[in-house]
Write a structure and sequence with these properties.
The protein folds into 2 domains: 3-92, Luciferase, Domain 3 (Luciferase, domain 3, Roll); 98-189, GMP Synthetase, Chain A, domain 3, CATH 3.30.300.30. A hairpin with a 5-residue loop joins strand 7 and strand 8. The strands form 4 sheets. Strands 4, 5, 6, 7 and 8 form a 5-stranded antiparallel β-sheet that branches. 18% of the residues lie in helices and 31% in strands. It contains 4 helices and 13 strands.
């Protein structure tokens, strides 16, 4: 049973119920809570904001940060998503991780990673925008293969080229399911674990590669 947990909302804003749920969602707002989408795009995706009696009073001894986070009583979560017609919250990714195309389209790398990571041969993946040798920005992915699953599929003596080709095939399957502007154009294999924070979330660096 999944929900949308935020320390600032002590600690739940939305939750799937026993009878009212959607497996692809973070659930419905808790009683007394309200969820809205700030500046939605043509697909209804925007920043998730929340309002309710379990919202914090503010960050301890940090009025400046509090003023940025809570505007007119609404908490700006920094998460992106949309609300379905039946009121369920779908989270698409973090606002700071959003990749913006030249045409103003939003790409949420977490969504693409989630689909890739469903493949048993993929242990972890990281999608980002990168400038290629021609100076063009393209969508790239680094993949840590699940070596055990790869051995089961390709054999224990599979060469690196065959493993890379397998990863490219998995990415090609993903690209066939999504709009062209979201397509991943470059695939890399990574042997070492991604740097992570204390919550075991991958540390991202989009400071120099934010848009394509």
């Amino acid at each position: 049973m999944q929900g949308y947990g935020l320390t600032e909302f002590a600690p739940i804003l939305a939750l799937n119920r026993e009878k009212y749920f959607r497996h692809d969602s973070a659930g419905l707002p808790l009683p007394g809570n309200r969820i809205d989408i700030l500046n939605p795009d043509e697909n209804g995706v925007g920043e998730i904001v929340g309002f309710g009696p379990n919202l914090m009073l503010g960050y301890y001894e940090d009025p400046e940060l509090t003023a940025k986070a809570i505007v007119d009583g609404w908490y700006r979560t920094g998460d992106m998503g949309y609300i379905t017609e039946d009121g369920f919250l779908i989270i698409t990714g973090r606002k700071k991780n959003t990749i913006i195309t030249k045409n103003g389209k939003n790409i949420f790398p977490e969504e693409l990673e989630a689909v890739l990571n469903r493949n048993p041969e993929v242990a972890e993946s990281l999608v980002y925008a990168e400038t290629n040798d021609s100076g063009d920005a393209i969508l790239s992915v680094e993949i840590i293969p699940d070596r055990e699953q790869v051995r089961e599929r390709l054999g224990k003596d599979a060469e690196d080229e065959r493993i890379l080709q397998l990863m490219k095939d998995l990415v090609r399957n993903l690209n066939a399911q999504i709009p062209a502007y979201q397509g991943i154009r470059q695939v890399k294999i990574r042997d070492q674990e991604f740097p992570k924070n204390t919550s075991r979330k991958i540390l991202r660096d989009y400071s120099k590669k934010q848009s394509i």
